[in-house]
Amino acid sequence: MNAWFEAAGAAAWGAVGFGGLSRWMDPPARARAERLCPSPTGVFVAAFPYYAGDDPGNLSRYARGEDYHAAVVRRLEQVCTQLRARWPEHIFRPSADSSPIPERAAALCAGLGVLGDNGLVLLDKWGSWVFLGTILTNLTGYPWPEPVPLRRCVHCGACAAACPGGALEADGVRTDRCLSHLTQKKGELTPEEAALLSAHPLIWGCDVCQQVCPYNRAAPVTPLPEFRDDLVPALTLPDVAGQTRRQFLERYPGRAFTWRGPGPLQRNLELKDGE
Predict the structure, then answer these.
(1) Active-site residue flag, 55
(2) 197 in a domain, yes or no?
(3) pLDDT tens, residue by residue, 47-86
(4) Strands 42-49 and 12-17
């Protein structure tokens, strides 16, 4: 299988039995997984690098290339084609950030990396600049491994110290102060949220905790063209103002920053114009 995942562009991959992974899932998530794949036995998980350098811009690095939901599933489908040819009687369901499978937990259980204090999975060589995708299956006869013991980062404190919203606490990430979350929030902002967004250099997402992480210090540029080429690093107010959701999607097809429509982006840009 190494050759299949490597040919699909995965920087790393692993597997974990569904029984072990299900301990990270609540009953509704387990029920959804079993509807997608009756009698699931395991999950394959893979990481795809997306770091494309430090060019300036006001969009988070993950959102500058092709929408990872589509790109990662397309690459996982290459693996699934091989799996289905080898085991045609079994089900193989690829997904990327769109299924009940907890992808970070799957990556950690499969031993792909360590858990960072910012909640991200940190891989050797690539750091946290990776997208995760999974393949849920009912494949029998495969030696599904038990989850590996959880490994954690070195706790250097760099991410917590640099977080512009003070969102990283000892017991986890406060989404109400995480700029990645707040930039995507629809509806009215509180005065505190508006102040945080106004001071934030990005209008979509946040890369600060990743930029200061020592695991990311020497990350190479991705070899995957969908995350390296034809990037949209920044938007201006004329790029989004006065557009309907449909017009915006047609102007920027296949981009992760479009899923909320133009509204949050226009609001965030206007906050900066009003400084």
Answers:
(1) no
(2) no
(3) 999 999 999 999 999 999 999 999 999 999 999 999 999 9
(4) antiparallel
